[in-house]
């Protein structure tokens, strides 16, 4: 039986940052993740994708963000159960929880924080008759290593942040980048939209809107993509080496959806007026997995939610203690092994 103060389900950026905030309060954390390594989607799907909205980083690769978070939490020595999925939860008479994985590993904690991101997921695929023929032969649904597209002709379809960000990034890698979207308006960040427009004006990106991909051609590997201008119905064949449809992911909560939590549109409802607690006291949901009025699915929002969750968790674990969170210094922090580490330190006054 693995015992900890806060059991975090999901080792993505939000879950990892929760370890740091809990560590400042001297709370021990253990994380469960179905993936074989920490980092969630940032590690598994797009480690080389640039992220632009992390405070203090004009641009940081997703994989580098995970590396930095792992370095930040190192003094607090979190435990990990990786490659296993949280399967069942049992609430004991003392209001603590036992979470068991699909491989039978049991975890015991007074607080459970679900930071599962989008849950289990699979890419949304375009409805094209011969799509499967070209999968891994010119068609990919995610970009893990952008150097694969060095000096290649790449066509990206989509209108969200991933499509915009990768079009911008690959403009300096691929020999030719074409972005196709079914509408003239994009769903991504306004700054990214402006950058794509600027790159189009500079001749570095071919922008085709409103349009959609209607066919794929090639003998063994992909050679042509047929694009239809939806305003005129005119179809044009574009020579490409790679077609990358970025239409997002189809998320599924998996077993967590059967835990008696209040679910809305495949996300866990939480109380955002205080601490992001679910309808079951002691179980919190932070990051993309939760929903509440005004919710934004941004990493920095997950960081904020993790911070408030840890404050509430401290009060739940130590109901007889009062504390005042004063400020964060730039001095060393004491790790759980008693060693001094160079890391930020919260000044907390606890009163018995």
Automatic annotation (TrEMBL):
Residue ranges annotated for the FAD/NAD(P)-binding domain, each copy included: 5-293
Domain of life: Bacteria
Keyword Oxidoreductase set for record: yes
Keyword field contains DNA-binding: no
One Pfam family matching this protein: Pyr_redox_2
EC number: 1.18.1.2
Gene3D superfamilies: FAD/NAD(P)-binding domain
Catalytically driven reaction(s): 2 reduced [2Fe-2S]-[ferredoxin] + NADP(+) + H(+) = 2 oxidized [2Fe-2S]-[ferredoxin] + NADPH
One Gene Ontology MF term: flavin adenine dinucleotide binding
Reported cofactor(s): FAD
Record-linked SUPFAM superfamilies: FAD/NAD(P)-binding domain
Enzyme class, broadest EC rank: oxidoreductase
Binding site for FAD: 14, 33, 41, 46, 86, 121, 288, 329
Keyword annotations of the record: FAD, Flavoprotein, NADP, Oxidoreductase
Known partners and oligomeric status: Homodimer.
Family per record: Belongs to the ferredoxin--NADP reductase type 2 family.
Record-given protein name: Ferredoxin--NADP reductase
Organism: Flagellimonas zhangzhouensis
């Amino acid at each position: 039986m693995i015992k900890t103060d806060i059991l975090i389900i999901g080792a993505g950026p939000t879950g990892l940052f929760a370890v740091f905030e809990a560590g400042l309060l001297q709370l021990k954390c253990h994380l469960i993740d179905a993936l074989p390594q920490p980092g969630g989607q940032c590690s598994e799907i797009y480690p080389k994708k640039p992220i632009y909205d992390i405070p203090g980083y004009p641009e940081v690769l997703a994989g580098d963000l995970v590396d930095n978070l792992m370095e930040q939490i190192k003094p607090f020595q979190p435990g990990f159960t990786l490659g296993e999925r949280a399967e069942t939860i049992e609430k004991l008479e003392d209001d603590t929880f036992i979470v068991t994985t699909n491989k039978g590993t049991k975890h015991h904690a007074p607080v459970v924080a679900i930071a599962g991101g989008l849950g289990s997921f699979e890419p949304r695929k375009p409805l094209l008759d011969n799509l499967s023929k070209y999968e891994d032969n010119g068609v990919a649904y995610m970009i893990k290593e952008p150097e694969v597209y060095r000096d290649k002709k790449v066509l990206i379809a989509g209108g969200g942040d991933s499509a915009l960000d990768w079009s911008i990034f690959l403009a300096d890698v691929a020999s030719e980048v074409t972005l196709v979207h079914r509408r003239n308006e994009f769903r991504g960040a306004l700054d990214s939209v402006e950058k794509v427009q600027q790159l189009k004006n500079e001749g570095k990106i071919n922008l085709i809107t409103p349009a959609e991909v209607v066919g794929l051609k090639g003998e063994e590997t992909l050679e042509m993509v047929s694009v239809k201008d939806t305003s005129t119905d005119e179809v044009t064949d574009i020579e490409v080496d790679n077609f990358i449809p970025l239409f997002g992911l189809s998320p599924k909560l998996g077993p967590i959806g059967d835990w008696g939590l209040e679910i809305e549109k495949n996300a866990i409802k939480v109380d955002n007026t205080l601490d992001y607690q679910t309808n079951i006291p002691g179980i919190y949901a932070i990051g993309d997995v939760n929903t509440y009025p005004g919710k934004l699915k941004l990493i920095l929002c997950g960081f904020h939610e993790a911070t408030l969750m840890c404050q509430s968790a401290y009060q739940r674990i130590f109901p007889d203690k009062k504390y005042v969170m004063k400020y964060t210094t730039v001095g060393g922090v004491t790790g759980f092994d008693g060693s001094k580490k160079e890391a930020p330190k919260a000044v907390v006054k606890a009163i018995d």
